[in-house]
Write a structure and sequence with these properties.
Elements: H1 19-29, H2 37-50, E1 54-58, H3 61-71, E2 79-83, H4 89-96, E3 100-104, H5 115-125, E4 126-129, E5 132-135, E6 141-146, H6 157-167, E7 170-174, E8 182-183, E9 186-187, E10 194-198, E11 211-215, H7 218-228, E12 232-234, E13 239-240, H8 251-281, E14 288-289, E15 297-298, E16 305-308, H9 310-313, H10 317-326, E17 348-349, H11 353-361, E18 362-364, H12 373-385, H13 396-399
Parallel strand pairs: 2-3, 2-6, 3-17, 6-7, 7-10
Antiparallel strand pairs: 1-11, 4-5, 5-6, 8-9, 8-15, 10-11, 12-13, 14-16, 16-18
Helix pairs in contact: 1-8, 2-8, 3-4, 3-7, 5-6
The structure holds pyridoxal-5'-phosphate.
Length: 404
């Protein structure tokens, strides 16, 4: 793990609110486990922020996705259409229920799942049968769409929901990176039928580890609560109606979550200010493109990410990564496109050339909520000066070896 005094980290938590006080309250009152007042309060705070009727806290975002797929009725052998360019967790969750992901490319402007390519797959590659929509290539039934809102920007949900309606598909949003993100002035996580959040250490708010399922459907919320607590029918006699999971969040983690939720608006403002500073500084830099925000979107810029075009910039994204690393600046590429993942061979994929290019060119820059002006200036100087050899002490000929 990158420590704060070792350099400029990519994204670390900001713990300057009531975290200590609330966690101390758990210890003082002995409410340390997966029941307690902070769990309910945290669920209520997230539900309220998203505008959803129900929220069920889970031990992490991946388990939230697993349970959301179960309550949405995704069965072994079904298919779930998924963003190709995302962290691997949602694809793994699809496999946990015995279903298969189908990967759909990112669109080039906002890097989210491409609704046109989604439409192309549903229309061109699938046929309606009396069991449902069947993928002609695999013979499997397509049950759901799982759009993943990546990097704090929303997916283009209007066409996605229209397609879901037309084909009778359930929409499970992976909103892990999208708490506070808005689309058409509506909260991400309240645009589909059920949604999941993550509160892992590098997310916009953190509980150390944690997740949340949100939905307006009471039956689904009840079932999510049931499945995450070992499907317990009778708590006294330990009667369990089916195979459940131990996926509940602890009161200690939820206490941290409540403190973090109190700061969410401030965190988002700071992320947006960081993004504005970077985008202004890179506006004239040859070969660098800054992230776009759709006109109907409110982006949190959870991870501020640029694209590096090798020809114009003078080196590629990985070479820049290593140069910045040498200066103590931590950056990170985007995830390997899932259709290329060794873990997900055997899944159907559509043409995903855009996500391949984005993976090649993208680099996320330090953007912790607490990042200082000096740190931002150091990153900006690095990006703007390294390939042009004008950074103090930089020797272009030694840096050139990084340009592979
Ligand atoms: C972080 C993340 C997850 C998984 O959350 P965990 O809490 O780490 O299990 C799922 N999907 C996306 C898109 C994520 O970024």
């Amino acid at each position: 793990m990158f420590s704060t005094d070792a350099g400029i980290p990519l994204s670390v938590p900001c713990l300057r609110g009531n975290e200590w006080a609330y966690i101390k309250e758990c210890l003082d009152t002995n409410w340390v486990s997966s029941v307690g007042p902070f769990v309910e309060r945290f669920e209520a705070m997230v539900a309220q922020k998203v505008g959803a009727r129900f929220a069920v806290a889970t031990v992490n975002g991946t388990s939230a996705l697993h349970i959301a797929l179960l309550v949405a009725g995704v069965k072994p052998g079904d298919e779930v259409v998924l963003s190709d360019l995302t962290f691997i967790a949602p694809a793994n969750a699809v496999r946990y229920v015995g279903a298969w992901p189908v990967f759909v490319d990112a669109e080039p402007r906002f890097w989210q799942i491409d609704p046109e390519k989604l439409c192309h797959f549903l229309e061109g590659d699938c046929v309606s049968t009396n069991q449902g929509l069947r993928n002609r290539h695999t013979g499997r039934i397509v049950k759901a769409i799982m759009p993943v809102h990546i990097l704090g920007h929303p997916c283009d949900m209007l066409p996605i929901m229209a397609l879901a309606g037309r084909y009778g598909l359930t929409v499970i949003e992976d909103a892990s990176e999208g708490l506070g993100t808005r689309y058409d002035n509506r909260a991400v996580g309240h645009l589909g039928h059920i949604a999941c959040f993550s509160f892992n250490g590098n997310k916009i708010i953190t509980t150390g580890g944690g997740g949340m399922i949100v939905t307006d459907q009471e039956k689904w919320a009840q079932r999510a609560r049931y499945l995450t607590t070992q499907a317990k029918d009778d708590p006294l006699e330990f009667v369990h109606g089916e195979i459940g999971y131990n996926y509940r969040l602890t009161n200690i983690s939820a206490a941290m979550g409540c403190a973090q939720m109190e700061c969410l608006s401030e965190f988002i403002s700071q992320k947006r200010a960081t993004a504005a500073t970077y985008s202004k500084a890179f506006a004239e830099t040859p070969g660098i493109s800054v992230p776009n925000e759709a006109t109907n979107a409110f982006c949190t810029f959870w991870l501020y990410t640029i694209l590096i075009e090798q020809e114009a910039y003078g080196m590629n994204s990985r070479a820049l990564l290593r140069c910045l690393e040498a200066q103590g600046i931590q950056t990170r590429p985007l995830w390997q496109p899932l259709h290329m993942s060794p873990a997900h061979q055997g899944s159907w994929t559509t043409d995903c050339s855009v996500s391949v290019r984005l993976n090649r060119d993208a680099l996320s820059l330090p953007c912790s909520v607490g990042v200082s002006t000096n740190e931002l200036e150091a990153v900006i100087a690095g990006v703007n000066e390294i390939p042009f050899g004008i950074l103090a002490g930089a020797k272009p000929h030694t840096l050139a070896k990084f340009s592979t």
